Amino acid sequence: MFNYYLKLGWLSIRTNPWLSLLMVAAIGTGIGACMTILTVNHAMSSNPIPQKSEVLFHVQLDSWEAGEPGPDGYNPPDQMTYRDAIALQEEAPAFRSVANNRSGLVLEPEGGDENPYTVDIRNTWADFFPMFDLPFLYGSGWDESADENREAVVVLSRELNDRVFGGENSVGRTVRMSGINFRVVGVIDEWLPVPKYYDVTNGAFNLPEEAFIPFTFAIEQDLPRNGNTNCWKPVDGEGRDAFLNSECAWIQFWAELRNEEEEAAYMSWLNAYVEEQKVLGRFPRPLNNRLNDVMEWMEDRQVVEDDAQVMLGLSFLFLVVCLLNTIGLLLAKFMRKTGDISVRRALGARRSDLFLQHMIEAGLIGLGGGVLGLGLTWLGLRGIEVLFGDFVEHLVHLDWQMMLTAIALAIVSALVAGLYPTWRAMQIMPASQLKTQ
Amino acid sequence: MLSMQNISMVYRTDTVETHALREFSLEVGEGEFVAVTGPSGSGKTTFLNIAGLLEKFTAGKYVLDGKDVSSLSDADTSKVRNEKIGFVFQGFNLIPDLNVFDNVDVPLRYRGFNGAERRRRIERVLDMVGLASRPKHLPSQLSGGQQQRVAIARALAGEPRFLLADEPTGNLDSSMAMSIMELIRSINEEGTTIIMVTHDPTLADMAGRNVHIRDGRVSDMSSDMQLADVANG
Amino acid sequence: MQFGPIWRALMRNKTGAVLIALQMAVTMAIMVNAISIIQTRAESMSRPSGVNEVDTFYLSSIGFNDNFNEQVAVMEDLAALRAMPGVVNAVQTNSVPLSGGGWSMSLATEAGSDVDTTGTAIYFVDEHGIETYDLKLVAGENFAATDMTWRTPEDSTWPGTALITIELAKALFGDDNWQEAVGQTIYIEETQPMTVKGIVERMQAAWNGWDGVERTTLVPQNTAYGGSRYIIRAEPGQRDTLMPQVEEMLAASNRDRLIRGLNTMEETRERSYQGDSSMIKLLLFTIGLLLLVTALGIVGLASFSVSRRTKQIGTRRALGASKADIARYFLSENLLISGVGVVLGAGLTIGLNIWMVDAFDLDSMNALLIPMAMAVLLVVGQLAVLGPARRAASVPPAVATRTI
User: Fold this and answer.
1) Using CA atoms, how far apart are residues C21 and C39, in angstroms rounded to an integer?
2) How far apart are CA A99 and CA A227, in angstroms?
3) Chain A: residue nearest B84 by CA?
């Protein structure tokens, strides 16, 4: 029977091509608008590391000034001071933890044919690579001994390795950056966490850095810091050591805690640490330390911007308009077939037969709308790329999941829109005469 | 075959009550060909709608093929219509989007026959009405007489016990009308019970029995019987 | 044309009309709220930065080896830049308005750590800063060459003078007393005094979303932190020819540094407001599409209604209605439906606005938008129904006597 109704639906669509096209266009436009925005939001709110997002925690200590709003109001600052980061890194009971910050160095190509260029750097620790599951193309991350010994080692991104070494296995070779020779220990494969959860402070949708070097080495060499820095107290004195001892927060801190016991133990360690520091005259605010796992942290940072949410709301209202439109047109279409319907009833069609027949016709129109909507979504995403530029380009693409969502949303919408007109069609009485007016 | 006892049908609106049928009674036997006549407004169409289970009536009892159909659910009346009753309408009532084959197919689909069975039945009835060569034509490509033949084929495809015809020749010219009437008679001769509503006495004469409706009641049965006898003779 | 009979006819067959009215209402709610967002964004974008955006560009010079002596390089670079034909003036600075990256500090009118402070953006410039940025000095005087000091990693003492914007002066000294700020002392990093030497009319900070975007301080210092930014103002019309020349000249003059980040102020503004301007375009597109969908829906339903009533129309024509009467019937019918729709829409619009203001911290809409949107939708409705109405008008009276 399903095939029969499909055939009837198709015949009916062909009989009123313009009306049908109008409905397909209405649903397609609504789906296109919704899916375009939904795809962007989906990318923005996606879990960048689903396999581990619940065991990775962003750590916040409230070291800010009493009574004054900080970079994040009365919440703890989102970054950490050097003193605290080192204390946590070395002493806190985490399975793994990494203090890290953003930097930039000037790379001097060998041979001197090419001009020097700047490279985005992340200063970090050996645990960074296993903790955030970085995929390696060649070699691996550095050993903990490199952290301890402050070695000049580097892990390159695939793109930078392509640029410097033409994509060859460069493990063991040397890259010269800002006058220092770094030994390559590893090259990572394509790695594009969206959002860039491990440092949303410096742009949740920026690309990952091009090279990774030991944090300890960067500190020892006093290499530049490129990231956001917030201080609530003037730096007491001049030079590197004064800055490192200051209350300036500039370090992202993450810990991997494998279960609730580890989390609780870590939290109580943090609290004890802060109480200790309070005795020393630091941490003037009340105890307010935070552990947020990846998705909690994305939520806390409102990584999905208000604009995106406003657009999502408006686009769903848009879909509502399109559906109201479709209800009206479907009703017109079904009422135009009153005669046929009453003949079918006379020939023995039950109400349930009419229900199926008309819902399937609505579904068929929904399918058409879905296909059109997919096309429009594709166009819409190109449009968004043109409008919003770089970041969307890397992040937003139409995957299978979203395509199926589009088709399903279209069909469900059409079925919902079809309910009332179908109900009306079911009320048509069987008749012995076709009434034309 | 068909037994109506004291059927009443009252249409109510806010202001008026119309009695379309008043305590209407009729018995039709197996294999009969009954013509129902009457002036317009007499209740002919209401009778037809009730006999065909197209409309519910206000009071009375209706037994069709040994089964009381007075208060069946909508789905059950649909089933009875589908299995036991064939309709032939004045306006043919073919579905314009469907070709001849698919039009005849409609009741068979609701019957739930498989494809082979449907094909067999459709080909048989189309052959019977002389349209076996045109299964792919659309109704708009056929003459009125041909359209009515398709409608008859559609009514017969389910092999109903009972055929209801409403002015089957009303939209046809006289030569076509005669050939349709011949067809209906031959169907009756093969054993199908037929009730035909018409205002045309010439056509009514071709039936085995005449029933005259006036003001919602059967009237003057005896003279009708006489006329029927003449026609049969 | 009387609305009474049309209304009564509508009431007997209201589903289609209700659907159109609802569609109009939701359309209006979306439209007005979208326009309200657009207005807010456009207003924020239209705030002047206070600097000459048309002729100005900037770039960075980054030393990358030990041979690079930044203090010498900065002085040589500035002298060379100012000597170039086509250059009005140039200055070393740390930041550019609207660029997103800058330096902010707290200022107070008294020394100490327990005093009220005001946040300000800091620009390091020299005595050429005012001319290069094309700022308007409204009180006091510009820096002199003798005010200048060097800021280095080893010495971050603040100099003794500063220029501030009117907005900052108001924030520090009160709305009515800002002119008296000249000659007053302000404190930075709790204890270091600076004398306000002059007041500039306006200069925006680097962050366009900051509520203190016009609270800016100019500080007479050159900086030596390894990377220097130069901002250059060209003679009108010379900017684009000058940019590659400047880049080439600087790159050639000193091989121990690299030149990067060559940008115009115009690009900077564009990038700064990219989110806003994209949002505006997106919303405008949405509104357009929405009106189109609504209009097409009206066309579809009106066409259906006309074809359903062909016989009735023919009868009316036979009874003496003129073509114009028939067309007017359908136009009036649409006007009634749309009228109900926009009234409903006004309520829905206000509801949606209240929710959006609440959920997303938006500004409340301008109430004038509601009558304007009502008018627009009524016109769109009339335009949409025009085609079907004309088709109705062309139904011949003879249809009345046709039986089918």
Assistant:
1) 27
2) 13
3) A348
Q: C189 in helix, strand or coil? A: coil
pLDDT tens digits along A166-183: 999 999 999 999 889 999
Q: Which two tokens stand for residue A181?
A: 């020779």
Distance CA A316, CA A318 (A): 5
pLDDT tens digits along C76-122: 999 999 999 999 999 999 989 998 888 888 899 998 878 888 889 99
Q: Residue A313: how many CB atoms within 10 A of its CB?
A: 18
Measured CA angle at A80 (ends A79, A83), to 5 deg? 165
A chain contacts of residue C360, beta-carbon cutoff 8 Å: 306, 309-310
Going through A131-273 in order, the beta strands assigned E by DSSP cover: 136-139, 153-156, 174-177, 180-188, 211-214, 249-256
In B, minimum Cα distance to A13 occurs at B97
Instruction: Read off the pLDDT of residues A241-272 as tens digits, 9 standing for 90 and up.
Output: 889 999 999 999 999 999 999 999 999 999 99
- A182 Cβ contact list (under 8 Å, min separation 6): A152, A153, A154, A174, A175, A176, A211, A213
A192: Cβ–Cβ under 8 A, 6 or more apart, which residues? A207, A208, A394, A395
Mean pLDDT across C16-29? 92
Burial A273-283 (b: 16+ CB within 10 A, else e): bbeebeeeeeb
Count other Cβ atoms within 10 Å, centred on residue A84. Answer: 24
H/E stretch holding A118 reads: strand A117-124
Exposure on the CB side of residue A419, measured as CA atoms within 13 A: 8
Does A345 sit within 8 Å of B91, measured CB to CB?
no
pLDDT at A227: 81
Residue B220 has a pLDDT of: 56
3-state secondary structure of B159: coil
Average pLDDT estimate for C289-299: 92
**pLDDT band at B14, cuts 50/70/90?**
confident
Query: What value of ipTM does the predicted structure carry?
Result: 0.83
Instruction: Give A272-336 as a DSSP string.
Output: HHHHHHHHTT---SPP--EEEEHHHHHHHTT-S-HHHHHHHHHHHHHHHHHHHHHHHHHHHHHHH
Residue A293: left if φ>0, alpha if ψ -120 to 50, beta else—which one? beta
Span B186-213, average pLDDT: 89
Residue of B54, B90, B158 lying closest to A430 (CB–CB): B54
Residue C224 burial by CB count (10 A; 0-12/13-18/19+): exposed, middle or buried? buried
Neighbours of B173 (CB within 10 A): 11
State residue B226's pLDDT score: 46
Return the amino acid letter for C70.
Answer: E
Whole-number Å distance between alpha carbons of A395 and A1: 44
Q: Is the pLDDT of residue A275 over 80?
A: yes
pLDDT band at C154 (very low <50, low <70, confident <90, very high): confident
According to DSSP, the residues that pair with A186 across neighbouring strands are A139, A155
What rounded mean pLDDT belongs to chain B? 86
Report how far apart, in Å, the C-alpha atoms of C1 and of each of C292, C306, C326 are.
28, 18, 10
Task: Report the pLDDT value the prediction gives residue C159, as an integer from 0 to 100.
Answer: 94
Tokens of C185: 């002392």
Non-local (6+) Cβ contacts of A120 within 8 A are A102, A103, A104, A207, A209, A210, A211, A226
Measure in Å the smallest separation between the Cα of C207 and chain A Cα atoms.
13
Nearest CA-CA partner of C169 in C156, C160, C150, C182 = C182
Residue with more model confidence, C337 or C116: C337
Annotate A338-392 with DSSP letters as a single string: HHHHHHHHHTT--HHHHHHHHHHHHHHHHHHHHHHHHHHHHHHHHHHHHHH-HHH
Decide: residue C256, CB within 10 A, 0-12 exposed, 13-18 middle, 19+ buried: middle
Q: Which residues of A touch C304 (CB under 8 A)?
A: 19, 329, 332, 335-336
